[in-house]
Amino acid sequence: MTCEICERQKAKIIISQDEEQKQLCLGCYNRQLSAELNVELQSQPEAFSTTDYAGVRREFIITQRLNPVGILIEAEEKKEYGYKFAVHGELDCDQVELFQRLQEKVKQGITTSYVTTRKFPSGQQVETIKNDKIVGRLDYDELNEDTPMVVIDGKPYTWEQLGKMVQAFEGFQIKVKMVDMTDNVE
Ligand SMILES: [Zn+2]
């Protein structure tokens, strides 16, 4: 689907206006909202990279999105089912500061890992939960319509795989809490 305004970029956003639906690319959508809201989006770096808990360099693509109540900036790792982080600021916020907040959130988010690989004398390798906590993200699984993918440490896991990892905790209580992408997981 191509954007109805520029007719060049891929349409990513569908907006409904006066019973009409418009399909726009992110750039055209932002320009339209910028005019409507009288808010200028400042240009931000298109990408940045930083090292994770294991010293591995991770590359992130940055996208900004205006919405009627604020500005959303996302950092998505340049790979399928990788890390993803987002921050939200008011329309009149300091956008440079908002971007710095995102960078900080990425750095914070990738310094801790939750899954570790245990090697058995037999040579068998099993992934287990490092301590007693995991933080991850639910993502759409193209190969499975029934359950979403759980991305932990920038790596995708199925619920079956996650189930195996929590097996060691049989007899424990479990707490599952959903947190908006722009909020901080405690
Ligand atoms: Zn466009």
Number of helices: 3
Shape descriptor: elongated
Number of strands: 11
Uncertain regions spanning at least 5 consecutive residues: none
Largest sheet: 4 strands, antiparallel
Please give the share of residues in helix: 10-25%
- Distance between the ends: 39 Å
Query: What share of residues are in beta strands?
Result: 25-35%
Structural class: alpha+beta
As for the number of domains, it is 3
Order of helices and strands: EEHEEEEHEEEEEH
Overall radius of gyration: 20 Å
- Average pLDDT, to the nearest integer? 94
Bound molecules: zinc ion
Strand order within the widest beta sheet: 3-4-5-6
What labels would you give this structure?
3 domains; four-stranded antiparallel β-sheet; 186 residues; binds zinc ion; alpha+beta
Question: Your description of this structure?
Answer:
- The protein has 186 residues and is of the alpha+beta class.
- 18% of the residues lie in helices and 32% in strands.
- The protein has three helices and eleven strands; from the N terminus they run E-E-H-E-E-E-E-H-E-E-E-E-E-H.
- It is elongated.
- Bound molecules: zinc ion (ZN).
- The site of zinc ion (ZN) has 8 residues, from helix 1.
Write the layout of secondary structure elements.
Elements: E1 13-17, E2 20-24, H1 26-37, E3 47-51, E4 57-67, E5 70-77, E6 84-89, H2 95-109, E7 115-119, E8 125-129, E9 137-139, E10 149-152, E11 155-157, H3 159-165
Antiparallel strand pairs: 1-2, 3-4, 4-5, 5-6, 7-8, 9-10, 10-11
